[in-house]
Design brief:
Elements lengths: L6 E7 L4 H16 L6 E7 L11 E2 H8 L4 H17 L11 E2 L3 H10 L5 H13 L8 H10 L4 H6 L4 H16 L7 E4 L3 E4 L4 H19 L2
Parallel strand pairs: 1-2
Antiparallel strand pairs: 1-5, 3-4, 5-6
Helix pairs in contact: 1-9, 2-3, 4-5, 4-8
């Protein structure tokens, strides 16, 4: 039987969260290995890990060490683990001296707008790559403009959204909504508005969840 509606997967994440891209890539692998690309719809939802971050940003290692009460050596060890996990999934993490943790509010405003054009996931991947792989400052308007051009949208129309108070408030309201629903860490994935998974799980775990969701949907269609 053909499914008439795709199963929605909400992913609450930040574009400077390394485990968010790792979790997504594992989910992506699970979907592709099962040959189920046409069965699911992914929607990206905003979550700022550092909502009060200044426009200048801060040294990433120092900031993370302070925020999570870790030593510099522990932060760098974690980054090495992340780099290895990324490589296994075909994603390049390029941590470097002077790398900054930046403010991501503008990125989330653009991602919300991109949903209207079916470009949300493509933009999300470009932002992840720009920050983690290409040494780019994704809080910078010029950089954001280049990224927007690369996905084939009108950069001027998109960048105008950054001056739109309604667009800014929409993202703030969405973030408050998730906080009120006890989402305090990312990535968080919500499958079909019923199953919540926090963190980045193995590919096999995602496959099991996806199959169970489809079997449940199929069973309901016969009732």
């Amino acid at each position: 039987m053909t499914l008439t509606n795709k199963i929605k997967i909400d992913i609450i994440s930040d574009v400077i969260c390394p485990w968010c891209i790792i979790g997504y890539k594992r989910l992506e692998h699970a979907i592709k290995e099962l040959g189920m690309e046409d069965k699911f719809e992914i929607v990206w939802n905003p979550f700022e890990l550092n909502p009060t971050m200044s426009s200048e940003g801060e040294d990433a290692v120092s900031y993370l060490a302070h925020k999570y009460h870790m030593s510099v050596e522990q932060v760098k060890s974690t980054q090495s683990t992340i780099t290895k996990n990324g490589a296994e999934l075909g994603f390049t993490f390029h941590y470097y001296d002077g790398m900054k943790t930046v403010n991501t509010r503008n990125a989330h405003i653009l991602l919300d707008f991109a949903k209207e054009f079916g470009k949300q996931t493509e933009l999300k991947m470009k932002l992840f790559s720009a920050h983690f792989s290409e040494k780019k400052d994704i809080s910078n308007h010029h950089t954001l403009g280049e990224i927007l051009q690369s996905i084939g949208v009108d950069k001027d129309v998109f960048l105008a959204k950054l001056e739109d108070e309604n667009a800014r408030k929409k993202v703030q309201d969405a973030e408050e909504y998730w906080h009120k629903h006890n989402i305090s860490a990312v990535p968080t994935m919500i499958f079909n508005n019923e199953l919540i998974m926090n963190g980045a799980y193995p590919v096999e775990t995602y496959q099991k969840v996806l199959i169970e969701l489809l079997e449940k949907r199929l069973k309901k269609s016969f009732m």
